Amino acid sequence: MLHEKLAETLDKAAADSATPLYQFIVGPQGSGRTTQARDYAAEIVARGFGNRTMDRNDFATISFADLTDTPLVVSTLADALGGVLIVEGLAGTGGAPSSAQKVLHDRVIGAIDKRLTTIVFTSSPRDLADALRDMPELGKRLRTTVNLSQTFTPDEIAAYKADKAAGELRRRRSAEWKTARDEDLRPKDRHAAPQTARFVKPGGAS
Known about the structure:
Strand order of the largest sheet: 2-3-4-1-5
Radius of gyration: 26 Å
Strand content: 5-15%
Number of strands: 5
Helix content: 40-55%
Structural class: alpha/beta
Number of helices: 7
Oligomer: single chain
CATH superfamily of one domain: P-loop containing nucleotide triphosphate hydrolases
């Protein structure tokens, strides 16, 4: 249930490699913005849009609110290099960002300018407005916003998450069954002497 605008962006990028994949995904709490961001990032990776080979869920996530751990910022950006970084809860800083928030901002700007990493931000509409007021450089570079405010109902989001979880459970159980089946097909005693057929003469003893 990927939002149609996110799906359109992926289709455009498949036809034209110059299409930017960066996104603001906004909506109120419970609107599914984190789910959409993760599914969008997974599709970016699955379609091979990153600069390196990554597993489907191999992307990094960091929370912007109350961010104070600069080493965490540096290591998370390193993990996302060539792939996707999701910045959750983007909000205004009131003109006084923490040192970690400033490092994240500056390095994200550099990653966008050099096309090193695809950045996806999640936020509420009001928090995004505050963030772009305090960090105008982001607004200059990212102009695509997907608003989930009136896209999915809470029941639709719950049903989608339940269906997705059920699918993951089915895949895990299938993998477990295959592993168990393969174990059953293996020789039980690898060191047992091989069985050889005995030749018996017709009407005689062996």
